Amino acid sequence: MDLGLQGKVIIVTGGAKGIGEAIARLVAAEGGVAVIAGRNEEDNNKTVNDIVKAGGKAVGIKAELSVVEDCQKVIAETVAQFGKIDGLVNNAGANDGVGLESGNPEKFMQSLQNNLSHYYNLAHYALPYLKSTRGNIVNIGSKVATTGQGNTSGYAASKGAINALTREWAVELLPHSVRVNTVIPAEVWTPLYETWINSLPDPKEKLASITAKIPFEKRMTTSEEIADTTVFLLSPRSSHTTGQILYVDGGYTHLDRSIS
Ligand code: NAP
């Protein structure tokens, strides 16, 4: 299937690592230009170089996305270099463990800045360009918005808001033929996941107990599997799909837990 992404300019936040990296690589493999927006220049450059070596097109933009001006810069630099934006993948974020009891009002607000505000800010600043290309937005959410996890109020609130904004933006942007969808991962092995599991008392045992509960094939989802669905949604092959929240999670969020 030709996804029709040749020459499409797609911004991927957090595109240097993990899920974002897999999305950026696939965008480029499909002939698009991956614009990687992330805070660590070295990480950005490494992924850009790998993509270019493989024959793809990519650039990096250094941006701390919790800062509004950096979000503006990402859009301005993309347009200055390529003259258009065809897609925005809001992906950067981290489960930062700001709990009801363990956190405080300042940490909660900071968590919203790290996990939610830049999704809005980038969509806001990209909007004139997305309207002119009839482009689209894919947000990366989390199962936490549906299931809860405990001790992560800021992250859960952000991911819940992202689900709500998916429907809200899909409605607001109907007149402009700009589609908005969200992909929900549950358990995906990435640098972030590795750091989190290693912060627990018995990482090996915890990992085994999690994977045993993943209904489909008792294994983690790969970043590439998240990327496949995300890039399909970005593409014109999903031209009548909008306002959807898709769970790419091996059934983790919704299937019966009593199944063996
Ligand atoms: P990751 O391995 O940490 O990669 C995320 C990338 O985004 C990193 O390069 C990170 O930079 C960058 N980033 C994060 N916050 C940023 C900010 N404020 N400004 C600029 N760059 C920033 O994470 P991942 O596991 O791929 O997660 C990607 C998305 O999937 C997140 O939204 C996460 O909530 C969601 N998700 C993941 C899982 C999972 O199992 N992995 C499950 C559910 C949802 P640093 O390395 O400097 O932090």
From TrEMBL:
This entry's Gene Ontology molecular function terms read: oxidoreductase activity
Signal peptide per UniProt: none
Determine the domain of life of the protein's source. Bacteria
- Keyword list, A-Z: Oxidoreductase
**In the UniProt record, does the keyword Oxidoreductase occur?**
yes
**A Pfam family hit:** adh_short_C2
**InterPro entries per the UniProt record, alphabetical:** NAD(P)-bd_dom_sf, Sc_DH/Rdtase_CS, SDR_fam
Which protein family is it in? Answer: Belongs to the short-chain dehydrogenases/reductases (SDR) family.
Question: By its UniProt entry, which PANTHER family does this protein fall under?
Answer: OXIDOREDUCTASE, SHORT-CHAIN DEHYDROGENASE/REDUCTASE FAMILY (AFU_ORTHOLOGUE AFUA_5G02870), SHORT-CHAIN DEHYDROGENASE_REDUCTASE FAMILY PROTEIN
Quote the NCBIfam families the UniProt record gives.
PRK08628.1
UniProt-recorded name of the protein: SDR family oxidoreductase
